[in-house]
Amino acid sequence: MTAGFYVHSIVSFAVAMVSIVIGIIYLPVDPWIRGFLVVAVLYAVSSAFVLAKTVRDRHELSNVTSRVDQARLEKLIAEHDPFKVAAP
What we know:
Elements: H1 3-25, H2 31-79
């Protein structure tokens, strides 16, 4: 991940959240509807963060498992001698 992509992600998220807040503030509805929308947006944002973290963690776990399996296979191949005669 480049620094530019990182900054772009943060700025995009900030612009989106500010836009939502401004939209909710100027929405011509009762305060309880405004409150419901605020809670709904916060729930959606926190759920998105949790989902992204879960997907990342699952991906990292599969990479670690794959590397461990690869290391075991390489060890078995390195230790295997096809010309070794088994003792009777």
